[in-house]
Design a protein that fits this description.
The chain is mainly beta. The protein has a single domain, classed as Sandwich (Immunoglobulin-like). It is 14% helix and 46% strand. It is built from 2 helices and 9 strands. The strands form 2 sheets. It has a 5-stranded mixed β-sheet, covered by helices on one side. Strands 5-4-7-8 form a 4-stranded antiparallel β-sheet, with no helix packed on it. Strand 4 (47-52) and strand 5 (57-63) form a beta hairpin. The protein is globular, with a radius of gyration of 15 Å. The N and C termini lie far apart (33 Å). The model has no long low-confidence stretch (mean pLDDT 86).
Length: 128
């Protein structure tokens, strides 16, 4: 996990290797964020995430995958996620005990569906 101030985090989940790494790190997290499309529930990356405690910003990054695992100091936070101009915010309370992550799913409008039930990664592999 990387660190930003008192916050440890790992964002990813694209590809089998990253998903295995995420499963191994999940017991250390007390907050799990997921970014998906509204209609298909497809994974999204590149969400701009900001977490504040009402006094200061505690975390700010662009998620390079659809899942972010965070270990925050216990407390109440406002979590904001933005993708392509669409923004959502929620209030969360996280405890001190890792392994019992508070989970938040953010749903965003997705790209127009091309009629193929495959991930972008699978579609790219098929084109190659």
């Amino acid at each position: 996990m990387a660190s930003e101030g008192a916050v440890q985090y790992f964002c990813g989940g694209v590809g089998a290797d990253e998903r295995r790494a995420m499963r191994a790190l999940e017991p250390r997290a007390n907050l799990k964020l997921l970014f998906v499309t509204v209609k298909r529930g497809g994974y999204l990356a590149d969400a701009a995430v900001t977490i504040s405690d009402g006094k200061a910003t505690r975390f700010s990054a662009v998620a390079d995958g659809p899942i972010c695992l965070l270990q925050l100091p216990p407390g109440k936070y406002r979590v904001t996620a933005e993708i392509a101009g669409a923004s959502h915010a929620v209030q969360v309370a996280v405890g001190a005990q890792p392994g019992k992550a508070h989970q938040v799913a953010f749903s965003f409008p997705g790209e127009a569906w091309d009629g193929i039930w495959a991930s972008d990664e699978e579609k790219q592999q098929a084109r190659e």
